[in-house]
Amino acid sequence: MSSPRSSSGRGKSGSTSTTVRVRRDIWRLQPTADTPWDPIVTAYARAVAVLKRNQGTRQRHWRFQTQIHGMAPDPGDRLRNMCQHASWYFLPWHRMYLSRFEDICRSIIEEDPEIPDEVKSDWALPYWDYDRTDSNSLPFPFRQEFIDGEPNPLYEARRRVGVNDGNPIPDPALTRASGWFSLPNFSTPFDLTPSFGGRETDYHHSASGTRGALEETPHNTIHVWVGGPDGLMSGFNTAAGDPVFWLHHANVDRLWEVWRANTGQGQDSTNPNHLNKKYQFLDRSNANTTITPAQVADTENDLGYRYEDISVPPSAGAPVQEEFVPEMRRRPLRLGSSESTTSLSGGRSASTAVPTPGFDENIRRAARPHRMLLAVEHITTDTPLDDIYGVYLDDPTGGKGILVGTMSLFGIQESNSPDSEHEMSYTYDVTEAVSKLSESGRWDPDNIKVSFHPLTDPSSRRREESAHESNITVGTVSLMVG
Amino acid sequence: MSNSTTRSSETFLNRRPEWLIATIALCSWPALIPLLWSGPPHGHHGTDHHTTHDHVSHTPTAQAPSVTSTAGVALAVWVLMTVAMMLPTAIPAIRYTAFATHHRRRQRSVLLFALGFVAAWLPLAVPAVAWHLSGREPTVTVTAVTIILVSMWELTRTKRRALLRCHRTAPVRFTGRPADRSALAFGVTQGMTCVLTCGPAMLALMILNHPVVATILVAAAMPAQKILRWGIPLRVPFAAAGLGVAAIILITS
C-alpha cells in the first residue's frame, strides 16, 4: 500500500502544519547501495549533523535528545531519563518522544538552504521495516562511515559486529509479527500475562516486570541485535544516540497502527489513568510542553502524520478465530514450574523440565476459555549480553521444538540495578504451540521441557578476545493457564 | 449455609490466600496490647525492675521474675510485634508465594514464608530485649534523638532501595521439598529486607516504650509505604512529620 507523500488534513497537538505528512519506508527510499540518497534521507542526515554539534538551545542538542530516553544519574527535571518500558505507557511515550524529535528535525530542515522546498514542506521521519527479506539488514545510508569524504552523521561504529557490513538479521523470529498481532488486549492489570501494549503500571522508567508483546519483538530484539554487547542501541542511556534508533521506533509506532487497524480495532485504552498521564517534552521552540497519551492517540489528527504502509505483515500468521477472543484479564493459574535455576552461558543452549503435577485437575479449576502461558522469571546476568535467545517448547518425542518467542533481555542491567523494583520476566502465549503438539499426539503434560537456543550469529559476538562469557540465570520457568 | 454461599466463600478465600496470615496478624493484637500497654506507668511490660522491686518490698514472700522470664516476655513482645505489624506488610509477597505454589499446599507455603520472615526479625530482637532489660526510661533527649534518627533513615537511599526490593520476588517452587525450602528462603529474604525498611521504626518503638499513637502510626505507615502504588514517596512526609514531632518535643521540654 503506497500513499502520496502528503495529503491535506489537520494536525493538532505537536504539529506545526496542517499537512498530514507520510512516514515512508527507508528501504523503499534507498533500495540499493548505488541508489542516490533520497532527499528525505539527506534531509534527515543534515538535521542529525546539526543536532550532533550540540549548539544552540538544548532541544537541538543531540546529547539532550539522547538523555531524554535515559541518563545517569537522574537529573530530576522530568524531561530527561524518562523512557517508559514494560508498561502500557511504552507506546504512547515513545510516540510523543518521536513526534517531538521529528518536529525539531523539521525545524532544522526548514532553515537549511540546501534542502528543496518540497522536502521542507512535508518531511517526515522514515521508518525501517526489518520484517522482510529485502530489508532485514541495516539500511544503506547508515552503513557508510564517510559520504563524499565527510563523516556520515548517520553512521555509528558502536554497533554489533557485522551490522555495519550489512549482515542480515539472523533469524526471522527476531522481527516476526505473530507474537503481537493476534493479541486482543492493549494492556493487562496482571503481571505474567501477555498483552499487546504492556502491563498497567504507574510511571515506569524501568525494564523490570513483564513487557508487552510488541515491545519484546521486534522492539527489544532489534535494539540488542543492532547494538550488540556494547553498542549504543543496547543500553537505555545510549540507545537514542544511534541515528537508526529513530527509524526503529518509527517502525514500532507504525506496527501499533497496524494493530489498531486490525486486531486492535476498538481496543484502545479508555482508562483515564492511562490517557491522562502527563509527560513533559521540549518542543521546537525550546518551550516545556505537557502531553498525555490521549493527545497522541490519533496520528493524523493529533500529530499530523501517517504511514506509507500499514498492511498486515506476512509474519503475522493466521488471523484470530472470532469465536475465541480471551479477555486476559484474570490472574493466570500456575500449572507447574521448574525446580531449579537454568543457566545460559557463552551463547550455549540450555533446557529445563517443567513438571506439572495434577495437570488435569488444575486445568479443570481454570476458568474457560483457556490460554496456555509460559512465564520465564527471575532473570539476572552479571555481564553485558551477546546473544538473543529463542524460547522453545520442546517436542517430547525428540523432534524440533516449537519457537514460542524471543528473549533479548534488553534492559536487563537496568532491571537488575538496586533501584529497580522488579526483576525482568517474560510471558509467552503458547496456546497454539500446545495445540499443535496435542493435535499431533505429542503433548505430554508429564514431560514438558522448555529450551533456550541462541538466535544470533556467533560470529557477531563481542570483539574482545578476553571478554567474559555472558552468563544469564533464569530463576523460574512456569506453565500457566489464563 | 447454601451451596452457592459456600462456593462464593471458597472462591473468595482462594483469591485471597493471605487470609490466614492476615487473621493471625489480627489475632496477635489482643495478645500484644496487654503486653505493650498494661501495668504501671514505669513498667509497660509488668516486669520493669522498679515495679518488681516495689512488689517485692510490699509482699516479702513474692519471688522477683528472673531475667530469663523478663527477657522471654520482651522477646515475645518483639515476635508479636513482628507478626501483628510487619507480617501484613508482606502480603504482596505472601500472595506471590501462594500463587506460585500448587493450590493444595498454598497455606503450607504461606506459613513457611511467614516463619522465615519472622525468623529474619529475630536478630534485631537482641538490642530490643537488651534495652528492655536495662530498665531505662527514655529521656526527652533520647526520645527526640530517636525520632530524628528514624525520620532521617526514611530519607536514605538504603531505605528507598530496600522498599523497592520489597516488591521483588524470588523463585518459589511448585511442590514438594523444593517448595518448602524456597518458600522459607523467600520469607527470610523478605524479612531481611523488611528489617532494613522498618527495623529502625520498630526499634524506636521499643526504646520509647510503645507510645500508643506512635505504635498505631507505625503499624499503618509501614504497610502503606510497602503496598500502596504511591507508597515509596510517602517516606518524605513521614520523615517531615517525625522531624516536626522531635522539634516540638525539644522546644516544649
* Unreliable stretches covering 5 or more consecutive residues of chain A: 1-17
Q: Pair with the most extensive interface?
A: A-B, 25 and 22 residues
Write down the overall mean pLDDT of chain A: 89
Query: How many strands, which pairing sense, and closed or not: the largest β-sheet of chain B?
Result: none
Radius of gyration of chain A equals 22 Å
Number-wise, the strands of chain B total: 0
Structural class of chain B: mainly alpha
Rounded to the nearest angstrom, the distance between the terminal CA atoms of chain A is 37 Å
Strand share of the residues of chain B?
A: under 5%
* Helix content percent band of chain A: 10-25%
Beginning-to-end CA distance, first to last residue of chain B: 60 Å
Number of helices of chain A: 13
Which structural class fits the helix and strand makeup of chain A? alpha+beta
Helical proportion of chain B, percent range = over 70%
Oligomeric state as shown? heterodimer
Overall geometry of chain A comes to: globular
The SSE string of chain B, one letter per element, is HHHHHHHHHHH
Give a brief outline of the structure:
Chain A is of the alpha+beta class. Chain A has 13 helices and 19 strands.
What do these coordinates show?
The complex is a heterodimer of chains A (482) and B (253). Chain A has 482 residues and is α+β, with helices and mostly antiparallel strands. Chain A has 13 helices and 19 strands. In chain A, a hairpin with a 2-residue loop joins strand 3 and strand 4. In chain A, helix 2 (39-52) packs across helix 4 (90-111), helix 4 crosses helix 8 and helix 7 (213-227) packs antiparallel against helix 8 (244-261). The longest helix of chain A is centred in the first third of the chain and has 22 residues, at 90-111. Chain A is globular. The two termini of chain A are 37 Å apart. The relative contact order of chain A is 0.16. The model of chain A is unreliable at 1-17 (pLDDT under 50). Chain B has eleven helices and no strands. Chain B has helices at 3-15, 19-37, 49-58, 67-86, 91-99, 106-134, 140-154, 157-165, 176-207, 212-227, 235-252.
